[in-house]
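the two lines:
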Amino acid sequence: MSTAPPSEPAALSERGSSAVDRLLDLIDAEDLLPAGQDTVELNRLQLAAADERFQAQRRRIAVLDHRAREFGIERIMSIDDLVPLLFTHSVYKSYPESFVLKGRWDRLSAWLDTVADCSATGVDVSDVSDIDDWIARLESAGVHLVASSGTSGKQSFLPMSDDDVARANQTSARLFAYPYRVNPAVRRPVTLLAPGRARMRYSYSFRTYCAIFGREGATASLTDEPMLVADAIETARLRRAMLGGSISPSELTALEERDRERAERVEGWLQALTERILAQRDEPQILVGPWATFWRVKEIAEAAGVGPGTFHPETVASVSGGLKGLQLPDDYEEQLAAFLGPVLRPRHYAMSELSTALPFCERGRYHPMPWVVLIVLDESGEKLATPAGDGSTTGRAAFYDPVWTQRWGGLVSGDRITVWSTPCGCGRPGPSVEDSVRRFSDIAGDDDKLTCGGTIEQYIRGVTR
Amino acid sequence: MPVENVIAEQERTGAAFPNTPLVPTWAVVKGRARCGADEELGTVEGVRLGRPVVTLDEIVTPRTDPGPAFDTPVAEIVEVLAATGEALRRDEGGFLAESLEQLRRTSTLDGRILEQAYADLWRTFDPGRSAFQVRNELGGPEFLDRWHPRAGHDGRVTSVRAFPPRLVHVMAGNAPGLSASSLVRSALTKGVHVIKLPSNDLFTTPALLRTMAAVAPGHPVVESFTALYWRGGDETVESAVFRPQFFDKLVAWGGEGTIRNALRYVGPGFELVSFDPKNSISFVGREAFDSDESLRAAAEAAATDATMFNQDACVSARFQFVEGTVEDADRFADALLPELGKPRRTASERATPVPAELRDEIDALRAMSSLYRVVGGFEGTGMVVRSDEPVDFHPAGKIVNVVPVASLADAVRFADVSTQTVGVYPAERKSEVRNALAAAGVQRVVPLGAAGQMPPGFPHDGFLPLHRFVRWVNDED
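prediction for all of em together
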């Protein structure tokens, strides 16, 4: 690891007039996590930046302003002031689903304007035909929406401005393959093991990697077919129809047929993708994607007689995401590692809501970048977690992210993490996150806490799968 | 170390530390209670619990052995239950006090609600109530006690017996009364019963069984019961035990995961009796606006139904449909809000504060003031969201969603197969909607405010429990 001299940390608060600008300047620093960084000064700057954004955004984001008034918070002077202002993911899916199902795009825009500062109501949506059309219309007006759906099937919409996208792309570029270095002068194949045209954060990162490292004609994704948000919503609509008892058996059959066709199509894409990746094995290539696809690629390659460890050693394989219900053997990590061989396998801890991933160091910890404030809350997400006394604190991960201008950067995640305030063995400054991140929803399924209260979703899921 | 001290020690040191001693819990094996902390049970609400060792062989009774109470007359069982009720009322052995103390520490329910529920447990054992259940659900004790002959349409005589079943019960723990009513139903059917305790109430069922054992030591009914904890879905237990060699039926209370797990084992000879997870709603007719008095009465009744067990039960109303304009719905919401904050028999003044995710969702609705109106705060004393159609989230912890409708008939479309109870104000208007509600899947139509008063001996969740518990066997001439 290169250890550049500390980049004048004491002078941080002196440069420029805006705390946000000074904090975000750190993205360009030669060494992102310089040993000997003045953490006291950094924390002061982080809070000043949070306060600066807060003062500006509360006037334009009704939900933030309401929250601030409810808790009587006028200034962010400490982490304690920040905690009540953190938003859960629910904020970004708090619109009534009927707006979408009934095509009330004006109302959906009005909703977006209450949870974010994007002037969506100023965009003409009178002739919008569906949700993807609405998203595209906003995009052309400088509101980029990242859409994701939880288990409920309801989509959340996280807005980003053009500047936000540029800044997030800049952090993706800076942190690519961290802590390894990849020489951009050597252009190489870049493959995304997921659909390239999706309303997801990874689509933006993928385009960034292609632009920086990609060789012309050698960049590809699983498919160029756009992943439509409407498809996900259609599933929700069908659930609703079932709820009201108005779905017909033929609709159900059609849905099953559609799922089967899709599965076949995806299988075709996976075959082609695997062929492409295998053909590039002799040169350094970049592979980015989730566990599920990497695993399928391995299976298809092995079925074709490809043995372990045949990839160029400078291949970068960035495998991400949780297993999302995948049934993999217990030693799946070892198996995939053996298949890929001694390639570069950077890891990171990331989420759609966060501009900047936390890269994984040589000593097995995730490190937040200095411009991102990492906060550990108790399980309820309402108070700071109590440190265990040995330098570690376990609880719900929360962040203040100063990158976003179109939405409030305070967020509470669904993840349980353990953070160490004691220095990481790798020498990087600041807190570090243990390699034990889990979603609270995956921990201790509450099967045993039986109650007789139930919802229709429990019945509906039984019908469809 | 006494249990109280162990818990106190854990609270002092923080239970997260693995070296604190485990709090022992009770298991009952064929009527014999044992307490222990031989194995770690798990951490419930911050308390690390242990359990005594119980082997799988101990809990099953092979089909070749008749159950201990198969030939005990119903009248005798009713007497044992009545004596148990009396003992519970006085809590002679202190079993309830001990159980309540532990439940208090491990339940999310408020101590006062638990106390109230415990104070009422004995009523479930009332002899008149037991006799009525047998009469109304099975046709009378004669069906349980002997082979009951009857001539068919062609004169041929067939004798029928409501034969004692072998049941494994997966209990719910969100209301202590469920343990009592389950135990009474089980005792009345004379069968062999294994009860899987829920982690949110490990204590009530063993306390009831210990009381019964003290009242009638060695009695066949007492020996018919086994109660213990294992983790729901634990294959080492369930795949060995959920088999037709040992049991006829699995009786499951709520818990989607449990029911789904159990379905894997259901097959010929092993049947599922499911008290499905449900939710409930209220219908408020325009008569509520006749006078200030009627509005207050409707609001109070609506709050009673909404706050049952701090809105954590299947009978708790979550959506309330108000016949009238948006302004009427707002008037109703304003009348309802203060009622939600009042302590009741089955509700505390303050439920757990609204969880952050729900709070965020409600805040966004509040910001869209042309479409939504939100009254009340997040501190757990009640909140009403008025919207023109039901909100997407699941209201819980004293949150009511009030939706104006043109007519009560118009509100029927919001009921479905997951709807258990519909409370109607005024009660006279139930008949207007009951057929349509039944067709939509609803199981109970009640006067608003009476959702919690489920009559014993009548259908529950769409069936007669005792009737489903027993095995109906023919002896044909």
